[in-house]
Amino acid sequence: MAAARFTALVSWWRALTGRSAARAGITDVRSARGTAGERTAAQFLARHGFRVVQRNFTCPRGEIDIVAEDRGTLVFVEVKARDVHGNELPEAAVTRSKRRRLCLAAREFIRRYRLGGRTFRFDVVGVDLEGDEPVRVHHWPNVVEYRNAVRRRRS
Fold this sequence. Notes:
By secondary structure, the protein is an alpha+beta fold. It is built from four helices and five strands, in the order H-H-E-E-E-H-E-E-H. The chain has one domain (28-150): 3-Layer(aba) Sandwich (Trna Endonuclease, Chain: A, domain 1).
């Protein structure tokens, strides 16, 4: 019951101020889980030979959790962290809408840093957590097809 009230309070704050819970100084379980998942994913990628270039790139169209480099390829990584006791796999939460926002944010990253000629791909890292401790990390390379994700919908 307290968690539901807290979630309602965070939603109210966001609606009232237009600010995220993190910017407002309000922390919640999901934010802590996301931070732990992103930290775990960055460490996992580094151990597997990736060079982490940037974390939490944000622009008006979306956010990229991790931008890394893997043998000359620019890799945009979406991290999904879930409680190990949950019903859904973390990576199942990468919806069509999320894939589209990820691609639009990647387009902005490439434009902003003038990386137009680079080869790139989109990966997903799923992290199962028990508290703040990682239990399972799974990496799916090249899971988002850029062209289909950013194609405009027909009315």
